[in-house]
Amino acid sequence: MPLRDPCYKLPVSRFYGGPNVISLLFALMTIAIILAWRDRWRLSYMVFAVALVMSIYWLDYHATSPLTIRL
Amino acid sequence: MIILAPHPSRTLNAIGLLVICGILIAAYAFQFALDELPCPLCLLQRVALVGVGYGLCLNLIYGAKPHHYGIMLLAAIYGGSVSIRQILLHIVPGTGSYGSPVLGLHYYTWAGISFFLVILGTAVMLLFEGQYKKALVDKPEHGRFGGQPLAKFAFFLMLFLALANVLTTFLECGPGICDDPPTDYKLLEELKSDG
Lengths: 71, 195
Prior knowledge:
The complex is a heterodimer. Chain A contains two helices and two strands, in the order ββαα. By secondary structure, chain A is mainly alpha-helical. Chain A is elongated. Mean pLDDT of chain A is 76; it is low at 1-18. By secondary structure, chain B is an all-alpha fold. Chain B is 66% helix and 0% strand. Chain B contains six helices and no strands. Chain B has helices at residues 6-33, 40-62, 66-89, 107-126, 149-173, 186-194. In chain B, helix 1 runs antiparallel to helix 2 (40-62), helix 2 (40-62) runs antiparallel to helix 3 (66-89) and helix 2 (40-62) packs parallel to helix 4 (107-126). The A-B interface holds A 5, 7-8, 10-11, 14-23, 25-27, 29-30, 32-34, 36-37, 41, 44-45, 48, 51-52, 55-56, 58-59, 62-63, 65, 67-69 and B 40-41, 43-44, 46-48, 50-51, 53-54, 57-58, 61-62, 71, 74-75, 78, 81-82, 85, 88-89, 91-92, 95, 155, 158-159, 162-163, 165-166, 169-170, 173-178, 180, 186-187, 190, 194.
C-alpha cells in the first residue's frame, strides 16, 4: 500500500516535493488583490512581495535545461 | 509637466487591465481548445501577468501612484525574464518548441512581446505627473474605483481570472511540483485512478 500524505489523501510518491508552489503563487497574488480591495494595502504589498520572491526562486528551480547558445 | 486628470488615467489603467485579462483568457482558450497544457515556465509567465494585473488593480482602487506602476514594472521584468529564458531554450533551429504557434510566433514569444509592451506603456504612463496630484484625487462621492463601471468590471474580471488560475493550476499539477512537460491534469488523473 503506498504511503499517503494526510493533508491531500493522495500518494506522496506521485507528488513528492511539497506543496504545489505555482498554484500557491497564484493564490498569493489573488490574496494580494483581495487585500487591496479590502483596504489592507500594507499587508497586500507584503503578500505581493512574498509571491514575487517565491516566483524568482521557482524560476531558478524550473530553469534547469542548459541553453545551447554562446553568450 | 504633462497633466493627465485622474479620470483619463483610471480609464487607461482599466483598459490596460482588460488587455491583461484578454491575454489570460486567450491562454485559457488555447489551453482548452487545443488541449495544450501550460508548462511550468508558461505558468510562471501567467503569474507575472497576474502580478501586472495587481499593479493595475491598485491604480483602479486607490488612484494612480508611482509605486503602483513600480509594482507593474517589477512583475513585467520578472515575466519578461521567464519569457526570454524560454525563447532562448528554443532559439537555435532544431531545438524544438513548446505549444502551437499563433500567427507564426509561439506563446512565450508573444508573452515576451506583451511584457515589453507593459514596460513601455508603464514608462509612458509614469511621465504624466498630473495624475498623482492631490487636488485631482477622486471625490468621496465617487466611491471606489472612482465611480467607474469599466474600472469595477476590469477589477472583478482580473480577480476571477486569478482565482481560476489557482484552480486550474492545482488541477494540472496537483499538490506537488508541476511535471515538465505536463502530460495531463495530474490531480484529476490521480483522483480517477484512486476511485
